[in-house]
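Why should sequence recovery work at all? Because a backbone constrains its sequence more than one might expect. Tight turns favour small or flexible residues, buried strands favour hydrophobic ones, and helices have their own preferences. The token representation captures these environments compactly. In the example below, the structure is given first.
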């Protein structure tokens, strides 16, 4: 895969994350609604930032080919095995706990993928900033999963 294709995957991941969190926000209330709205907005911002990275390099004659074969091969395989199945499965979980667990898995997969992507991008700082924010998403979701405010929900609580 080329650098452009790898960045396009990142845009798709973030756009799908925006859609997912937006749908959860519509169904949630209180603090969870606020959290999901915040995450949705940040995912939309991440998609725009990945698009900006693509634009930055689109006039670079090497953009279509810059890559580290080992890294890009791993990133491509990882995307096909873990990220594509998640983002192509648009079915919403039926329970709050399942919805948060799915979000955690996607955040973890995104972090792994972006860590590989940053090794290919000539200026990795913008990708590193997104990774840092994704880790914060993971922390917030994990706190919700283990925190008191979700403990009132059983495994079968509907969203």
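From this structural description, the recovered sequence reads:
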């Amino acid at each position: 895969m080329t650098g452009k294709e790898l960045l396009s995957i990142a845009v798709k991941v973030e756009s799908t994350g925006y859609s997912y969190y937006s749908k959860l926000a519509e169904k949630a209330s209180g603090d969870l609604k606020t959290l999901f709205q915040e995450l949705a907005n940040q995912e939309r911002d991440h998609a725009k930032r990945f698009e900006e990275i693509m634009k930055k390099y689109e006039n670079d004659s090497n953009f279509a080919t810059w890559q580290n074969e080992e890294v890009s091969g791993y990133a491509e395989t990882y995307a096909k095995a873990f990220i594509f199945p998640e983002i192509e499965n648009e079915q919403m979980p039926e329970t709050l706990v399942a919805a948060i667990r799915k979000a955690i898995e996607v955040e973890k997969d995104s972090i792994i993928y972006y860590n590989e992507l940053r090794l290919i991008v000539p200026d990795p700082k913008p990708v590193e900033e997104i990774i840092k924010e994704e880790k914060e998403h993971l922390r917030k979701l994990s706190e919700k999963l283990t925190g008191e405010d979700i403990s009132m929900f059983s495994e079968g609580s509907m969203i």
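A few observations help interpret the result. The chain has a mean pLDDT of 82.
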